[in-house]
């Protein structure tokens, strides 16, 4: 027992000493992290088109002496830091892509970039903080490389393209990285997301599902066309579609145990008809489903098929349901045992009173594909100035989006300390 307690004490002392070293180095490298972030912000690129971004990252990682692989999942960059000692393989991930958004703020380094999206000319902006994610991971790569002698195992730095979704007709993102073998041999994966409405200096976590699964769907209601003056000659897909829309809303409110987890079903588009006096042959519904529990996800999927087809049948129409319609993402799921294991690292890094367990959000993240392969944690890091009211913070995916760059230092420290502590606890 005495030997075991001594080992635990030594581990604690070692962890605190390493954390102090990490904090000092994170402070030293913070100006460089900010410089990297501003470079990425001024030069954003869309999903699967992150060519110059990848070259910039590759050059830096090679300069650290790391083993670097490029062209992963089209434009991704993966680097390996090998301590030369036995131990686990820890993967750290940052996403790389910008969004087709025109920046509208007063930042001196705001984006003026343009590109093409789905065949249309667009402005491009890092409107979700991926520029900060890359900069934070580059900072962690520098510190971990400097501390190589204190590591046991390997670190895999994963710079992932196309988190926001690959262009139409293409594959990409975390799912393609998994297909290409990026998670092979990895024991654990950690990822962070900057949050524009969370105070700088804080970190948020959750056991289990922290972000929702996303399943897009399409429902085509097929009826019979007729003149609008003689609706009795039709099988009206417009009226049928209206009833389907209302019927879908009762799934969440009447069929799911919402005291367990949240769920959302949204109809985002309705297409059908082209004249005021013609009842069309068919109407198309497009929408999204968000769930945080696999059983509820299966229940909701089955209910969408049942509601749509049976309502249509009752109206003498026919419903064809495509679910999923396009790319689905799994639940972003923080392994509870791993969360418990690493929670002390969060508290020690951010400080007491700066760590909070939060409710899940119904947004989605393709980091979830990595977590389907190995246990992983996904955390939120504060990026809101302390003097800015939360309701005035610019939202993600908007032209006004911006963050307080002082929040990135904590992100660098978290990625670094999670890696070091996990390796030490694995001994």
Helices and strands, with pairings:
Blueprint: H1 2-42, H2 51-63, E1 67-72, E2 76-82, E3 89-95, E4 114-117, E5 120-123, H3 130-146, E6 154-160, H4 173-179, E7 188-199, E8 203-205, E9 208-211, E10 213-222, E11 226-227, H5 237-255, E12 263-271, E13 278-279, E14 282-291, H6 294-314, E15 318-322, E16 332-334, H7 336-350, E17 355-357, H8 368-373, E18 376-384, H9 408-425
Parallel strand pairs: 3-6, 3-7, 7-18, 8-17
Antiparallel strand pairs: 1-2, 2-6, 4-5, 8-18, 9-16, 10-14, 10-15, 11-13, 12-14
Task: Please tell me about this protein's structure.
The protein is an alpha+beta fold and 427 residues long. It contains nine helices and 18 strands. The protein has helices at residues 2-42, 51-63, 130-146, 173-179, 237-255, 294-314, 336-350, 368-373, 408-425, and strands at 67-72, 76-82, 89-95, 114-117, 120-123, 154-160, 188-199, 203-205, 208-211, 213-222, 226-227, 263-271, 278-279, 282-291, 318-322, 332-334, 355-357, 376-384. The strands form five sheets. The protein has an eight-stranded mixed β-sheet, sandwiched between helices. It has a four-stranded antiparallel β-sheet with strand order 12-14-10-15, covered by helices on one side. A two-stranded antiparallel ribbon has the order 4-5. Strand 1 (67-72) and strand 2 form a beta hairpin. Helix 1 (2-42) packs antiparallel against helix 9 (408-425). The longest helix is centred in the first third of the chain and has 41 residues, at 2-42. The radius of gyration is 24 Å and the shape is elongated. The two termini are 18 Å apart. 45% of the residues are buried. The model has no long low-confidence stretch (mean pLDDT 95).
